[in-house]
# Entry
Amino acid sequence: MSVSLLQWDRPSTRKVHRAVSNAVCEAIRYTLDMPDLRSVNRAQIHRAFLEAFADYAMDASGTTEERLLLRMKKNAVDYDISPGLYDDDRLVGFTLIGVDTWGGSLSAYDAGTGIVPDFRKQGWARRMFDHALPTLRTRGVERFVLEVLQQNEPAIKAYRKSGFEIARELRCYAGQVAELRELNRASSIDLRPIDRTELARLEQTADWVPSFENRFSAIGAIADHVQLTGAFVDGDCVGAIAYSPALRWLLTLVVSAEHRRRGVGTALIRHLAGTFDDSVERLTALNVDGGDAGMQSFFEAIGFTHLIDQYEMVRAID
# Structure
């Protein structure tokens, strides 16, 4: 058995025996090639993803190859700087890294780090992260951000050792579509499709920076797969919701400050639930800022239940 660490392309000719010392691993790490994106084997990435996340706390078994790749596009993943771990021809580990401006800074995002069970607890995740840092510095990336389940204490401990600190808590909720369709709607609110221009104006009223997964630029990254709906009062757009049917992902729910607690958010959620076919039974709202008590109360008041909590962790790249 041999193991090699490389960027997404093919099994490297430089093999690393699993029992090799850390010193040798570090020496090899700095001589790896950086091949381009054209040689990515997407099917192999998908197979490795399913294997690595088969025992994850949140079920990932239904993730199709198309959905995985679309989510990576949403997250601005750059395969040129996303390291992979191979056991001969088999991809057994990966760190998918997205790069985009977020919160005013050019940021890297861990869109998914996975190691198949037989290769865990051997330090490979840390080595893949370290391998990506020089290129991120060269590109002027200022910080690295990731999300981790709060119950995943070993991962949190490992990230702290790598220099990450907890920046905030993120709450995740789920609502039953059948119940959301029955929510009351104020008759004074007109709901209709909007374009990115209307949403951009409302973005300025947001109380907090969305998580990297839900950043506003993600909507443009997969624009053909996002439906935008605006809520209008007296002709003015006072709220909006962005949803990707292909990903079953709620990207944005924003209401102008002066129109909150007037049924705008409820009307938008009710309308969205009404667009789903019978195969969609649940709507999730992921990564609500843990400091926004008002948003949390809103979701709970309209029937969403608490799903799970995450930490957003950040490390400066200097």
